[in-house]
Structure formats: structure tokens, C-alpha cells
Amino acid sequence: MSPEEVVLLCGAYIFLHKSISSKKKRKRWWVRNYLLRRQDVLSDLCMFDGSFINFLRMSKSDFEYLLQNVGPFIEKQDTNLRSAVTAETRLAITLRYLATGDSYSSLSYTFRVSKQLISRIIPEVCKNIIRVLKNYIQVPSSEAHWKEKAREWNELWNFPHCVGAIDGKHVVIEAPSNSNSDYYNYKDQFSIVLLAIVDASYNVIYANCGAKGRASDSGIFQETSFYQRMVEHRLNFPNQETISPDGPDLPYVILGDSAFPLSENLMRPYPGIHNRGTMKRIFNYRLCRARRVVENVFWNFMRGFSCIS
């Protein structure tokens, strides 16, 4: 006898026993009636692409692409007692949570899924999104690819020999148990740090997430594999070249703010205040304008997904 049949037999016995002992009591359902209409939510959203984007922060085509890749890992089988929550609904619940930070109770009424089940769905789906998309962000692997990134920076932001911009973002979290002050940051909040390097077209080419909020952006970056490969010249950066006919050979660099250490391939602004019109003032302006791309990327992240605000 299968486990489902055992459960069904036990349920039938309990139901029969309660019916005989107290016929006046209303019988309890395994699934509440309003929860059975959970598919109506996505069906209504799919009618209007604008509503879909506002609700899940992505287009229907992007959602379908993500579902196609993640779906096989989060899909559950129906049982004799109830229909499983579909992979489509599981993914939508998780994206809505990441987009708004809604409580499980609020999501329960929106999607007509119990909050107890939602508390299991969201961690599982997040884990499988990472599993499927962990190789989606790729660091350029060849000299030609890095030169293409540099060409984009020069054309779009008028900063030659730049191949990326780096910054860090504190993501507020609840205080972990027994964490002491490791996650307590300078803003008097508990957080982890999202570190990202982006190209001139707002694409993330490297990300590191999970460092303790107490650490500085510089300290976190120096512990990453990207930094180790950079200082050991294993990233295949192009060789130093001139940017003007009579100028010196200059390296290809990543742009950071004053929190990052100056190195051969990591450029930061000149420290201090400089007079208007001086070379250092102009250089700092050009660097900060180009580096604004990574700040805009984080702003777009926060606007779309409140979980990282």
C-alpha cells in the first residue's frame, strides 16, 4: 500500500468517525476553497504586459525564460489529496516577494497559497535560481573581449582604457543569531554586502554577495578571486598601450571610488579638494562621471527589487 493510500485511508476513517460522533460539526477541508483558485492571479496578469511587469518586475518573455530553466527543479507532483502548487506559481510568489518584500500573510492572500507553504517555497526557489543562473554572469576571458569593453567605455563615457566600474551595496538583513557585531555596519544596521563590477552598458560582469556588513568594500574586494587574478595578471587584460601618439603606455583599469586601493589595474580619484580647471579636478570629474554607471545599476536593482534596498 502506497503512502498516499495510507493517508487517504486514515483520512477517511477520521472523517467517518467525526461524522458519526458529531453530525452538527462542519467538516474541515484539506485545502480551503479560495486557495483552489490560485491560478486566476497569473491568468489575469498575463492579459496585460504592463500589469505583469509592474507585478513581477520583468516581462512575460523573461518570466517564461526563467521558468523554463528553473521549473524542472521546483515542480512538484499532485497527490491523491490535493493538487500541487505549480512551478509557475512558485516562481511568481518568489519574484513578488523579492520585488516588494511583502509579508507571507500578504502573499498568501494574493496567490491563495498558505503562508506555511510560502515559507518553504521562497527559499527553495531562490536556491534553484542560483543553481541555474550561477554561470549567467561571465567575466570576459580574452584580451579581445576586454578591448571591446574598453571601446564601449570610451565611446559612451569618454574614458579610455576603462574595462569596468566597481562599487558595493549594503543589503539590510535581520540580525543573525550569535553574530556579535560582524554584520553591524557603519550605518548602524545589520547587513551583507553586494559587490559588483559592471560594463559601460549597465551589464554586471562580476558579482560577489554575502560578505559581512562590518567589512569595508576594499577589504571585501581584496578577498575575492577576481582581485587575486587581477594582481597576478591572470585576467587576460590587454597589454599597456598609449592613448595618444606621443603619450606613455597606460594600463587598462577598473574604476572605483576612494574606498578602493589604488593599483596598476584599479583606478581611484585623486584625494583632496582641487581647484577648478586643474588636471586633477578634471580627471576626478571624468572618473566619477564614468563610474556613475555602477551606481545607476544599483539604483535600478533597488527600484525593481526592494529586497536589496
UniProtKB/TrEMBL annotation:
Cofactor(s) demanded: a divalent metal cation
Subcellular location: Nucleus
Major site of localization recorded for this protein: nucleus
Translocase in keyword set: no
Residue ranges occupied by any DDE Tnp4 domain in the UniProt entry: 166-308
Keyword line: Hydrolase, Metal-binding, Nuclease, Nucleus
One MF annotation (Gene Ontology) recorded for this entry: hydrolase activity
Pfam families in UniProt: DDE_Tnp_4
Listed GO CC annotations: nucleus
Database matches in InterPro entries: HARBI1-like (IPR045249), HARBI1_dom (IPR027806)
Hydrolase found in the keyword field: yes
Domain of life: Eukaryota
UniProt similarity note: Belongs to the HARBI1 family.
PANTHER family cross-referenced by the UniProt entry: NUCLEASE HARBI1-LIKE PROTEIN, PTHR22930
Name the record gives this protein: Protein ANTAGONIST OF LIKE HETEROCHROMATIN PROTEIN 1-like
The species this protein was found in: Trichoplusia ni (Cabbage looper)
